[in-house]
Each structure stands twice: as structure tokens, then as C-alpha cells.
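go over my protein:
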Amino acid sequence: MRAPDFWQIGGPLAVLLRPLGAAYALGGAVRRSLVTPWQASVPVVCVGNLTVGGTGKTPVVLDLARRLAQRQPHIVTRGYGGRLAGPVRVDPKLHSAEDVGDEPLLLARRTPVWVARDRVAGARAAIAARARLLLLDDGFQNPTLAKDLSLIVVDGEAGFGNGLVFPAGPLREPVRVGLTRADAVVVIGQDRHGIAASSPLPVLQARLVPKMPLSFAPGAPIVAFAGIGRPEKFFATLRGLGADPVAARAFPDHHRFRGDELLRLEGLAAGLGARLVTTAKDAVRLPPSWRARVAVLRVAIEWDDTGALDRVLARIG
């Protein structure tokens, strides 16, 4: 589902839903108070967020896996959208997005990934497979596994929305509560909400940049489509690269594309003399017969201050 406008700007409906948001936050707090986290025998680094929807966690996890490669990291993730409960090690040659979700497939091309709805079971399986460091993709609000370092990823354009907890706003928990358990904040993109100025934690500034070479020609007409947390961010990135999106179509997050939908998109592109373009996360959800017919924009994280990042990562020990 598309995030409602009042999650960003507030309004009467947000006010009406505030009691439900307070109950949701209370439920999370009670759960954390009742659980004793399991302490892994290796360091656990969590990359999470305080809001529902996409903020850019996956590129951050990929970059950390590269930077920490000598620590033999394994990634543990829930595998949202997949049918397998796990723990199971993701094999891109064997598994599909329907099995394990789209993000694990992307991550598993670079480093070992375990899908597990039970995070502790996933951590145990990774350690048994000789992981010397665990990267927890999401799971910041999950209290069952102790974290040695937690990074909160924030979309600089959206910030924390209207500052209210779901369903009144986009927050999974109050900002002040979440930040007390975190070690640093990662702001991706321009900080339009003054997060760095108000944060009690170190703030790492970063941006998403396209991987080169592009799989489409800058300046050529394209029809862009995406089923991610903020499709408009993808469309804006394309325009910033000099692409000409003559049409843009947004789908729900983690949408599984059907053949008839893709045929309509292809027909639209043909009528406009354009090429279809989507995100890397969406590409793994395309039927295999469509993957060669759609160009993909792949992105990576670029840090403003890698020294500051290294100082935060040094806390792992």
C-alpha cells in the first residue's frame, strides 16, 4: 500500500489515530521489557530504522558487508515477502523472491545470507556456518537478539514523517525511545528535516549513487516502474541522472509483477518509443522471461565522511 499523505504532513486523521499509535508503542515497549535478548558469541551489527517502508537499509548492509569482509560477515534477515520461515541460507541459483523475499536475493549475491523469522535461530545457524560477525538487516525493534552496534537509517527527504507512531504516522516506535538503543544515525540524501542538528547520536551522512555503467542510455526516453517503499525517490533519481521518464508507474512495496501488468507496461513503452527501467530490488521479482527486457538501475552507498563511519564501526571491537 502507498503511505497515506497524513503520515508526512499530519492532519485530522492522524490526530484521530494517535491513541492507536500510543497502544502500538506501548505494546512494543512491553515486549522489550519481557524478553531477555540472546547474546551471540560473535559481534552483531544491526542496520534498522524507526519507520515503516524503505529508507535505504539494503545498500547500507551491502556496503558494510564489503567493508567488514575480513570479519567473515553473514547477514541475517527475516525475508519479508518470502514463504520460507527458515533458518535457510539463501542460494540465488535455487531460491526465488517468492521463497525468500527480494532483498535477501540481492544481498546473497555478495555475501552469505540467512533468512529466518526467528532471528536467534538464524544467528545460531550463521555462527554454525562459521560466521565471525552478524549483520542484522532490519530487526532493530526485535528484542530477542542482543546487538553490539545499531545503526538507524533515515531517508533525508522524508525524515520521521509527522512524528507519530503507526497507524497515526510512519514510526514503529517513538524517535526518542528508539534512539536510546542506537549508536549512530545514517541520513541518506539531503537532510531536509534537521535530523543531524537534533540527533543526540553521531550522524553519518550518505547518498545513493548509481553504479556505472548504466544499463540504459541517459537522455533516452524511458518508462519507469517500481514497487518499493518510496517509488517517487527512484523516479527523481532517474531525472537527476538526465534520464527522460516519459511515464512513471508506482506499485505497492514488494509487489509481485504479473505478466499482464508487464505486457501493459511494455505496450506503453513501445507506444512512446521508450525503454522499461526498474530498480534492482524490483528486478528480482520479475518473471525470468522478463529480466532481459527491462533495464535496471543499480545503486550503491557513498559516504560523506568515511572516517566517521570507521570510528563508529570501531566500536564493534
Notes: The mean pLDDT is 92. The first strand starts at residue 44 and ends at 48. Residues 212-297 form one domain. The chain has two domains: 31-207+303-316, 212-297.
